[in-house]
Amino acid sequence: MKLIINTVNLKIGGAFQRSVSFLKELKEFGTDKYFVFYNEEIAKQVDVESFPQNFTFYFFEQSPASLKYRAGIVKEFNRLEKEIEPTAVFSFVGPCYWKAKSPHLVGFGIPHIVYNDYKYVKNYSLKTKMEMVYKKFWTKYEADYWVVQTEDVRQKLAKKINVPLEKIFLVSNGIGQQYKEVQVVTRTESTVKKLLMISTFRPSKNFEIIREVVRLLKGDKFKYEFHITIKEVDYELYFKGLEDSVINHGHVKAKDCPTLYNETDAMFLPSHLECFSASYPEAMKMEKPILTSDLSFAHTVCGEAALYFDNQSAEDVAQKIKNLFHDKNLYKDVVAKGKVQLKNFDDSRGQAQKYLEICKIIQK
Predict the structure, then answer these.
(1) Tell me, what DSSP letter sits at residue 64?
(2) Bridge partners, 246 (sequence order)
(3) Domain 178-344 belongs to what topology?
(4) CA-CA distance, 73 to 63, in Å (whole number)?
(5) Terminal Cα-to-Cα distance of the chain (whole angstroms)
(6) What CATH architecture is 2-172+346-362?
């Protein structure tokens, strides 16, 4: 098999981290010929010079997601595809704004399309709704096949874009390569409880609620710290004056995330919208209880292995945090259920193998 792997439109987020793990796994066991389209951010985490001879890398400074550069980049994509003559193309996540001529598998990661019945999505501005229509068009137009991370998303996507269910494949998310040999550390008892939210700043992540939650937690027998990983400009805008309660670590490389988990007491994710968050299985692996939104995307992934809150009520969020840390048995129960739930997910090696199996199924 000759496979083009397109990661040019990835810079941050869960799909970016999964693509890095995928390439590193392929380096260890892949025997086909791989032609990787990559960018500067991928280059920071993947040493392309260390890959074996069955890999060929093509560097792109810009992404076709930008209208300014799209025509030129797509023209180069098309030229390379004609030159390589691949048996399949795998764009790690869409929209990638490129319709390949070879069988094209595209990863799906736009929750707004499948969860458009959520109140949060219904309240979008007209401009944002139009952007979603645009992305929905490209989601269907550019791909011949799709790969998703949960069965719930698979079923909904088939209906939303009106394509046969058999054209949508499922590869569950899970822990990355960096968690394989990690040593889990239990923090010593402390009156300071640290909650970790590993995420870039986006409106759908609901970072803003932390401000009010911090206020509501004051006076409790424990001191609470929220540890986040956003750009300094966003931190200054939303959390200036809360430096004692909201600690920002900035962008954290995938290899350093296990250390953050070991230094904190729980995973916190108040998102309005996700297809899947790798933070869920990561927290399960690192034996940290999960505090997250009481929404179907979270229940689909976590099942009973989380403590759920109304993510639009700071009062409920604060109360669930107190419940978790005031009740040692509850804390241990959520962690124990996480260990069981983790068995349902593929690790990075399993994901890579399944991606390759799908590409072989669809190849011309």
Answers:
(1) T
(2) 226
(3) Rossmann fold (3.40.50)
(4) 7
(5) 10
(6) 3-Layer(aba) Sandwich (3.40)
pTM, full prediction = 0.85
Question: And the tokens for 342?
Answer: 């983790």
Tokens of 224: 């609470």
> DSSP secondary-structure letter at 343?
G
- Going across the sheet that includes 88-91, the strands are 55-59, 33-38, 2-6, 88-91, 104-107, 145-148, 168-170
pLDDT at 128: 93
Q: Which residues contact 15 (CB under 8 A, 6 or more apart)?
A: 92, 93, 107, 109
- pLDDT tens digits along 266-298: 999 999 999 888 899 999 999 999 999 999 899
Q: Where in the chain is the domain with CATH 3.40.50.2000?
A: 2-172+346-362, 178-344
**81 token code pair:** 């595809």
Going through the chain in order, the beta strands assigned E by DSSP cover 2-6, 33-38, 55-59, 88-91, 104-107, 145-148, 168-170, 192-197, 223-228, 246-248, 266-269, 290-293, 307-309
